[in-house]
């Protein structure tokens, strides 16, 4: 993460949550940033220098990712993660704010808008995870096995960080040592694999259409034309189900929009929030 943010921690219900906050906290609008699956606040490092000129920015490492707790006692459902983020904003004295959620972070943002619409002014969903079902029953049952965390570690290790990055980035030349190290760092703590096993068990699936249609918060959907993780068809479907939404498609872009097109993403965010 760049020098525009300061790393901090807060204890929420006995769990340590790591977040990074812009040095200039006097900006009128607060923007809370939520990263994607197997990621952390690191994924916003290229976007942050643009945003901190205009907004009070808070990037949250959602458990069990980044530098936040990877506890075996935490309940890793989307609804609970959303509640944890909301409790963090309460702790910081932030009554209302806008949201930016990338991939899984977009689904957390949708949960926050559904259950606490009074707190969210606007939301920017960057290739938001949508319409994924809960894990199959045999996978949920398998997650209780003592060795399952080792299976998760082996499964993720098959492609490795570089392989995963190649799947999410359209322009492969963007993958450098800094990017590889930044995404690999959290896996040095072996507790993340047992936490991921619990997430498979706890994750309740993405919000169904009937819930999405209840969300009235203004939403900007930004998608990469060549997204192979959450394809553009998902964005086209989501903009139909969210009553107050619009979709912007970035050409020659994959899934990792904050890394691939930070300036273009910023321009769209600024235009949307200032309207």
UniProtKB/TrEMBL annotation:
List the residue ranges forming a coiled coil, or say none: none
Q: Which InterPro entries match?
A: AB_hydrolase_1 (IPR000073), AB_hydrolase_fold (IPR029058), AB_hydrolase_sf (IPR050266), Epox_hydrolase-like (IPR000639)
Q: Which residues form the AB hydrolase-1 domain?
A: 30-262
Read off the SUPFAM superfamilies from this record: alpha/beta-Hydrolases (SSF53474)
Q: What is this protein called?
A: Pimeloyl-ACP methyl ester carboxylesterase
Q: Which organism is it from?
A: Siminovitchia thermophila
